[in-house]
Amino acid sequence: MLQQNNTTDFSLESQIEWWKAIVYSINDGVLVIDHEGIVRLINPEYTQITGVTPDIIGKPLKEYRPGAQLTETLIDRKCKVGVYRKTEDREYMVDMAPIIVNNRIIGAVSVCKSLTEVHKLSQELKKKGEKLEQLEKRMNSLYQAKYTFEDIIGKNGGLREVVYVAEKVSESELPILVTGESGTGKELFAQAIHNKSNRFNRAFIPVNCAAIPSSLLESELFGYGEGAFTNAKKGGKIGLFEMANNGTIFLDEIGDMSYDLQAKLLRVLQEKKIRRIGETSEREIDVRIIAATHRDLEQLVNKNRFREDLFYRLNVISLHIPPLRDRKEDIPDIVQFLLQSTEMNLLQNKFSLSYTIEKQTMNLLQMYEWPGNVRELKNVMDYATCMAEGTVIKTDHLSEIITKKSVPLIESGESPLNQTLQEAMEAAERNFIQDTIKRFGHDIDEKKKAAKVLGISLATLYNKLKRHKLHF
Ligand SMILES: Nc1ncnc2c1ncn2[C@@H]1O[C@H](COP(=O)(O)OP(=O)(O)OP(=O)(O)O)[C@@H](O)[C@H]1O
Fold this sequence. Notes:
19 helices, Helicase, Ruva Protein, domain 3, about 45% helix, alpha/beta, Beta-Lactamase, about 15% strand, elongated, about 475 residues, five-stranded parallel β-sheet, Rossmann fold, 4 domains, binds adenosine-5'-triphosphate
């Protein structure tokens, strides 16, 4: 029996008990034979794993278990590692070693590990892995980018060039900064880029940095660990960066992100690691970042409201989407495209309609300045198709704001609607200059010719281009 008090007993009997207790407490199965191959000891775990009961003790192993290789160890003196054994209902791995004292073999020991348990665990792990894969697939399908470059309509005013660059950089891993007024199609571009990249079947996670209060944005982006703060969810929360792993995160309105959070974003860009709030360890992530803003980031940098280092890091590839008023020639194609989408929607509801638009109505659409860009045009067309009694879109079907604020095209000869003379003259001058430049071309010699035809100096032409916000 083991000593119950604190005094140390060095008697042989006590020492044997001591070693036996150690062998019994081991989690692996242990069987020991002496130099004659007689079983001297097995622990309960050995019985558990192999089914061999303690009545084997004192008997020759070879007789009891003819397949046992342990007795060979007494002869060849070799250690054997990871010998696979399988009986009807058990599977286990055995390590064997001779017990040598003063260069004499006094026995051999076999240590076994159950594979049944390992199998069970690996089975469970497999199931969990499959579940995780399913969840990942579901998440990817929930966060799928639907637009491709085919959905980007138009080519005028520099849009063709932007599409060209965007397509080229799609497959690169570099961050992209998309700028342009609200409604010009920044997210549309981001989705198209994602869908053309190798990440197309992974998640595309859009985040509007201006729509989420800055106090919440950090935990939304990075997630948090359990107990990170009061009201924190049990088990913590995964952040959007982790959700976008292997995919793309679209950080819209990046100019509205707080200065502190900008520093954390810069770290993600540099280290490709994130740390959930309240946790100490970091997690590796592989996310492509596409940021967008309608603000002038350089100006924000100058005002110390946007980090210069982050700006340069994001601005490696920049795409500027021109406003719709600078590419009014695209309006007919976009209108056609929008009407077709409406038709497709109706078709899904079993209605088949084919819309046309009156020339006069189209003229009016091209006279308007579109401060809300393509999004506004989409809304106007949705409204018009609702208002139309038949399939022809007429001026009456446009909202009042369009009919009131449209400015005449030079060649249309339409009279201005509810405009002051000054406003109409300004609009006419803008359109006339725009048309003349388009007729002659963009380079300096062509502009000189345009200025001559307009009867103004080149300097005045440049001033007027600036005043009318014409980017040629
Ligand atoms: N060139 C285009 N061709 C077809 N549809 C377009 C085009 N540009 C924009 N759209 C459509 O206009 C709407 C607004 O686009 P999007 O949301 O991408 O703009 P945004 O610049 O990201 O706007 P915001 O800055 O307000 O977030 C979307 O429905 C989009 O599909």
